[in-house]
């Protein structure tokens, strides 16, 4: 296989691996934009493979750069020196792939900026109506998952505060029980694609 083709394949492999590494975090943002909640956790099964996919992306893109800078033996080259390289053989292509891969890999760390602030100021008439419930939630794998659940719950009336944690696999909700029930909150969590464990 030629060095050019190998470099091209390595670049595309790196790009694919970088996108796949954050594939579990991208659907919640798409679901928010599209207004579809149930598909959010569809790729959460990929989270355990994230470190391997990041490693594959780094190795593949590194290999593509290595091939780009590799000193070619002029005796073996049968190419036309004046021939203009194809786009995927250029440094611009590799810079673009590298930058896109870095953006895709780091997506879980900045995904919260895509969620609008939908917290409301709630006036509680009777302090005895305030209730705090902790839901065990299955399927959260990163900060983007937390943001998705928090956003969905904050859309409901009567929510005072919500804090989701993918590390603890739970969501703690403080709400006014005269305005909303625990069952409605649970239904909202389940509608995001993550599941409340009973």
Brief rundown of the structure:
This protein has 198 residues and is an alpha+beta fold. It has helices at 3-21, 26-34, 50-69, 91-105, 107-110, 143-154, 182-191, and strands at 130-138, 159-165, 170-176, 195-197.
Write up this protein.
This protein has helices spanning 3-21, 26-34, 50-69, 91-105, 107-110, 143-154, 182-191; strands at residues 130-138, 159-165, 170-176, 195-197. With 198 residues, it is an alpha+beta fold. The chain has two domains: 3-113; 115-197, 2-Layer Sandwich (Alpha-Beta Plaits), CATH 3.30.70. Strands 2-3-1-4 form a four-stranded antiparallel β-sheet. α1 runs antiparallel to α3 and α3 packs antiparallel against α4 (91-105). It is elongated, with a radius of gyration of 23 Å. The termini are far apart. Residues 71-75 have low confidence and may be disordered.
Q: Which key features would you list for this structure?
A:
2 domains; alpha+beta; 198 residues; Alpha-Beta Plaits; elongated; 7 helices
> What is the CA-CA span between the terminal residues?
55 Å
Order of neighbouring strands in the sheet with most strands: 2-3-1-4
Question: Helical percent range?
Answer: 40-55%
User: How does the overall form come out from the CA principal axes?
Assistant: elongated
Provide the β-strand percentage band: 5-15%
- Sequence of secondary-structure elements: HHHHHEHEEHE
Largest sheet: 4 strands, antiparallel
Q: Give the total of beta strands.
A: 4
Query: What's the number of domains?
Result: 2
| SSE-based structural type | alpha+beta
- Rg measurement, Å: 23 Å
Uncertain parts: 71-75
The average pLDDT value, as a whole number, equals 78
How many DSSP H or I helices? 7
